[in-house]
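worker-3 :: picked Short-chain fatty acid transporter
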Amino acid sequence: MKTLTRISNAIMEKYLPDPYIFVTILTVLTLLLGVALTDASPLDMVTYWGGSFWSLLEFTMQMVIVLAAGHILANSPVFKKGLAAIASKIKTTGMAIIIVTFVSLIACWINWGFGLVIGALFAKEIARHVKKVDYRLLIASAYSGFVIWHGGLAGSIPLSIATEGHKFADIMGIIPTNITLFSTYNLFIVIVIVFTLPFFNRWMMPKEEDSVEVDPTLLVEEKTKLPKPENNFASRSERSYILTILIAIIGLVFLVHHFMTKGFVLDLNVINTIFIVLGIIFHGTPQRFLAAAQDAIKTTTGIVFQFPFYAGIMGMMTASGLAAVFSEWFVNISNEHTFYLFTFYSAGLVNFFIPSGGGQWAVQAPIMLDAATTLGADYAKTAMAIAWGDAWTNMIQPFWALPALAIAGLKARDIMGFCLFILIFTGIIISIGFLFF
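worker-3 :: C-alpha cells ->
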C-alpha cells in the first residue's frame, strides 16, 4: 500500500491541476459531451451555462460563511486551547491519523458542514503537536470523513423524501428516515466505514523517509494588531463586552428555541449561526471578532470564484439532458439484483458534474424512479443509492475539498493521491451494502 500511495501521489502532484483549472476543463468537457450526446447545439449549451451561472449564489454564500465562521471560531482563545488540549494527548503519528479520521467521520455523520470545518481544524492542530506525521495524509484523513455525510443525519436526499409535499411524493410517497438512514443496508455501510476507514488511512502512512511534514509557515499564527484604544465612544464601543453579551443572548435564545420547536435539525444556516454566535462570544469584544473575520475571509477566494462555474455545469447537465443520458446508460445494463448498485455508480459519475445532493436528486430521480417502478425496485433504497453515489466521488472531486484545503493551506494535488484509495476502499464497502443487503 505504501508503494501504491507513493506512485499515486507522484501522479497527482504531476498531473492534477489547480481546482480552478479542473472546473474550467470540466466546463468545456460538459459542453462538448452535451453537443455530442444530446440534441443541444453549442449555442444551446452556452446558453444553459450562462443561465445557471449564478443559480448557486445563496449556497455559495453559505459555504463562504461556513469556512470564514469556522476560522473565526478556531482562532478564538477558548477554542484554540480546547483543540490544543485534545491534540496534545495524541503521541504517535499512527494514532494521529486514526483519531482525526474517526472524529471527521462522526462530525460529518452529524452534519457535513460542521464535519468539513472541524475535521480540518482538528487536523491542523494535531500537526502542531505530533511531529513527523505526514501532513498530506493527515488532511486527507480529515477530509475522508465527508464520504459518510449523505448516509448521516443531515443527508439532503433522505431528509427531502421524508418531508410532506416533496417533489416526487406522487411517485414514491413520504419515505420516513427509519427505512432510509436507519435501514439495515445504510447502517451496515456507515458502521463498517466508521470502524475500518481510520485503520485503512493508517495503513496508507508513508515510510518515515517519504513523509511530508507540515510547512512550519502554515502553522504560524500572525498576531492580529488591534488599534490603540482611544477615549471616545467609537473606540469604547468596539472594545465593549456589553454588546457581545447582548448579541450572545439573542443568538442563544434563537438557537434554543429552534431546537426546542424543530428538534435536532442542523442545516447550513443553523450551523453558521452557531459558529458566528460562538465566535462572537469566544472573542469577547467586537474589535477582536472583526479582526478575526478580516483574516478568515482571505481563505474563501476559491469558493467565491469556483462555485458559479459548477452552477453553470449543473445547468448544462440538466437542461441538455446529459445527466439523463448518463443515468440511462446504467439503467440499461441493470436488472432487479444489480439495479441499486448501478444506480450508485451512475450517481457517482453524475456527481463529478453536479456536486450538489439536492441538484443531483432533482436530475436523476425521474429516471431512476421510473426504472425502479419497471423493475419493482424499492424507492427508498433507490434514493439512498443516489445519495451514496453523490457522497462517494466527492473523495476525488476537488470542489468539496476546497474548505479543508483552505484551512490546511494545501492544494488538491497534495491529498488526492490518498483520496483515490479512500474512494476505492469505501466504494467496495458501499457496493457490498447495496448488492447483498
